[in-house]
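Hypothesis: this fold can be encoded by more than one sequence.
Test: take the structure tokens below, design a sequence, compare later.
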């Protein structure tokens, strides 16, 4: 039996996919304020050399009180959010790739 997340609710007309590159400065996942029904499924590329941190703060860091939730290379995270523009990302090194599915 596979494990996963079961999402129950109305279909979301704003469901979308995307990709971005993250570096050592916190950036918005995507500057889009379309409402989401659930949040964003984020995957760090398996070829990344560093982790990616995800959080709600524009001053997100990779350590300390302002650090977010770390995704290791190849890892995934479901991040609850009302819009993509609420989600910030930062990496431990330059040019770290991620893909995402907004629900």
């Amino acid at each position: 039996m596979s494990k996963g997340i079961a999402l129950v609710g109305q279909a979301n007309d704003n469901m979308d996919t995307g990709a971005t590159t993250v570096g050592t400065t916190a950036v918005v996942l995507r500057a889009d304020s379309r409402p989401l029904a659930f949040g964003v499924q984020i995957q760090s590329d398996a070829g990344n050399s560093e982790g990616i941190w995800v959080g709600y703060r524009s001053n997100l860091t990779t350590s300390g009180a302002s650090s977010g939730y770390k995704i290791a290379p190849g890892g995934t995270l479901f991040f609850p959010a009302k819009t993509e523009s609420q989600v910030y990302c930062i990496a431990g090194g330059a040019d770290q790739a991620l893909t995402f599915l907004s629900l």
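The two ends are 24 Å apart (CA to CA). The chain has one domain: 17-102.
Hypothesis status: open.
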